[in-house]
C-alpha cells in the first residue's frame, strides 16, 4: 500500500490490500472519536479498480513517529488509546460492519459475528484441546485500532493523528496486546 499527497489538503491511499472495510472503519472512527484527543483524517471516497483499492482522504501534516520519538509522548498516546477503548459496542467485528480482517483472523475465510455468543462460539472452536477457554463474554467490546504502532501515528505540534484503520473493530481490549505478539 502507498499514500500519495494529491493536493494541499488531500491524499490517496492505494494498493491491493486497501479495502472498502478500511474506508468504513476510518469513517466510523472519525465520527466517533473526539478530535481534540485524537485526529482521524476524514475518508471521503473509496474506489476499487482493477483489484486495487483507493481511499481519498484528508492529508495529514506532521511527522510520523518511531519508537524514539514516541517515548516522550507515551502518556498522551496512552490517553489516545484509552479514549479509543472507551468507545463500545454490542456486536463484535469491524467498526463499519461486515467480516473481520487482520492478523488475528483467517485470510481466506469470511468471518462475521452476529453477537457476542457467536464470537465466543467461533473462538471456542479454534481451541478444541484447551483446558481452560477464556470467557470472552465477561469482557466488554471496545473500539480497537489493532495496529496502534508509531508508524501509524502522525504528530503535528500538539495534534496526534491516527491512520491505517484497516484492521480496526469492536473486540475485547486485550485484542490490542494479542496483535502486538503477532507483529
UniProtKB/TrEMBL annotation:
<feature type="domain" description="Aminoglycoside phosphotransferase">
    <location>
        <begin position="12"/>
        <end position="173"/>
    </location>
</feature>
<dbReference type="InterPro" id="IPR051678">
    <property type="entry name" value="AGP_Transferase"/>
</dbReference>
<dbReference type="InterPro" id="IPR002575">
    <property type="entry name" value="Aminoglycoside_PTrfase"/>
</dbReference>
<dbReference type="InterPro" id="IPR011009">
    <property type="entry name" value="Kinase-like_dom_sf"/>
</dbReference>
<dbReference type="Pfam" id="PF01636">
    <property type="entry name" value="APH"/>
</dbReference>
<protein>
    <recommendedName>
        <fullName>Aminoglycoside phosphotransferase domain-containing protein</fullName>
    </recommendedName>
</protein>
Amino acid at each position: 500500500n502507498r499514500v500519495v499527497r494529491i493536493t494541499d489538503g488531500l491524499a490517496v491511499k492505494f494498493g491491493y490490500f486497501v479495502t472498502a472495510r478500511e474506508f468504513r472503519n476510518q469513517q466510523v472512527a472519525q465520527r466517533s472519536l473526539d478530535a481534540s484527543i485524537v485526529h482521524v483524517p476524514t475518508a471521503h471516497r473509496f474506489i476499487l479498480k482493477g483489484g486495487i483499492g483507493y481511499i481519498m482522504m484528508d492529508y495529514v501534516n506532521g511527522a510520523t513517529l518511531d519508537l524514539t520519538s514516541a517515548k516522550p509522548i507515551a502518556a498522551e498516546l496512552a490517553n489516545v488509546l484509552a479514549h479509543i477503548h472507551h468507545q463500545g459496542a454490542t456486536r463484535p467485528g469491524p467498526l463499519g460492519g461486515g467480516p473481520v480482517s487482520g492478523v488475528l483472523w483467517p485470510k481466506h475465510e469470511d468471518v462475521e459475528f452476529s453477537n457476542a455468543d457467536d464470537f465466543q462460539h467461533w473462538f471456542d472452536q479454534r481451541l478444541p484441546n484447551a483446558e481452560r477457554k477464556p470467557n470472552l463474554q465477561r469482557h466488554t467490546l471496545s473500539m480497537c485500532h489493532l495496529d496502534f504502532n508509531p508508524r501509524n501515528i502522525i504528530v503535528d505540534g500538539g495534534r496526534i493523528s491516527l491512520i491505517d484503520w484497516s484492521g480496526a473493530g469492536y473486540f475485547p481490549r486485550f485484542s490490542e496486546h494479542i496483535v502486538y505478539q503477532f507483529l
